[in-house]
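[job 0417] fold request received: GST-like protein
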Amino acid sequence: MIRFYFHPTPNPAKVALFLEESGLNYELVPVDTSKGEQHSAEFRAINPNGKVPAIVDTEGPGGKEVRVFDSSAILLYLGEKTGQFMGTAEDKPELLSWLFFIASGLGPFSGQAVHFQYAAPEGNDYAVNRYRREIERHYEVLDQHLAGRDYIVGNEYTLADISTWGWLIRAPRVMKGAEDALAEYPNLKRWFQNVDARPAASRAKDVGKDHAFKKDMDEQAKRALFPSNYPKAD
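[job 0417] inference complete; emitting structure tokens
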């Protein structure tokens, strides 16, 4: 059994998609990050970094319970555990390259673009421009790569597609003000529509919908989500 620590944000969405695609049994454990539940001692024992997603596999290697945190690490762990969505042996170097591209580029730049466009105080025009332009550049890299291709790596659906989908479902928010967030990236748009049409993607987007996560961006949420903006308690 997999215990899946979840909040409805892009990185947990990737893991939700893998779990729905693979058919693994899992128990959803909501972590309301706007209430600061990710900072609890109980959750920090699972992820010392205090972020979702994380999993606990009660049937890990050798039958031992193991924890895994960070979405890319979780995808690789589950892919190796199940033998699913890993591509061919020849594909592995490229698969790892694209997973790290997403983990070190597309993901964090998307997150910062959202932060500075929606959450940061006004007057950060340089930061807004910096992160928005970097997202456009990352989208262009993917768009060019996907010309004439159905999948990001090799000839089959892999972890790279699953990981990228997690962020592309938020493209309308990342590309604030764009009438069609992917209009300028036709290959990327075609790829996204194909992945998003998978039955498992529909199920993944419904994960956690029966839990009432906090939505108000009040002072409690700001302190929980952006603790480094506040002085440490004595």
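[job 0417] notes: Strands lie at 2-6, 26-30, 54-57, 66-69. The mean pLDDT is 96.
[job 0417] exit 0
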